[in-house]
Write a structure and sequence with these properties.
With 180 residues, the chain is of the alpha+beta class. The chain has one domain: Hotdog Thioesterase (Thiol Ester Dehydrase, Chain A, Roll), CATH 3.10.129.10. Helices cover 34% and strands 30% of the residues. The protein contains 5 helices and 6 strands, in the order αβααβββββαα. Helix 1 runs parallel beside helix 2. It comes from Psychrobacter coccoides. InterPro entries: HotDog_dom_sf, THEM6_lcsJ_thioesterase. Pfam families: 4HBT_2. This is Acyl-CoA thioesterase.
Amino acid sequence: MYPFFRFSKAIVQAIAAKTIGAQLDFTATGEIKFRCRLTDIDNFLEMNNGRVLTLYDLGRTDFAIRTGLGRQLLQNRWGLVVAGSTVQYRKRIRAFDQVTMKTHIAAIDERWIYVEQSMWVKGKPCSSALLRTGVTSQGRVIETQAVLDAMGKPDWKMPPTGYVAEWIESDDDRPWPPKD
């Protein structure tokens, strides 16, 4: 089940943080902390890989609110969508571990905002995700320039480079839907 209580708590905490002056610039890295709960673990007593993706939602929500994107989403009646992701796992997260999640924008192209997120326990990276995200209006992804204009960063450029550009290129080569 989706962690609605945690999601609501993350929204309240992000609004409170922004209110007391802990807002983020669109170029910054957001950080939240939480504990791995018993509802997050699988039969191997570690955080379930599906839950990892779900909890990454909390980091993106915090980031959106604290950067002001959340306000723009509400004002413009926009939505957010994840159109692709890749996750790497390096270290197990066990029940009751204190987790630090980091979220930042890795790149932006004409249509997509590429977000990189990671989870850390005791200063060691446990997982890292790269997500292709978009802002939607009336069910369609809008150009990122409209988002940047609304955020007051009309001249901000962050083209995909390195592994992000390679991931985009590799994903473009992937047949969709896969042939049997």
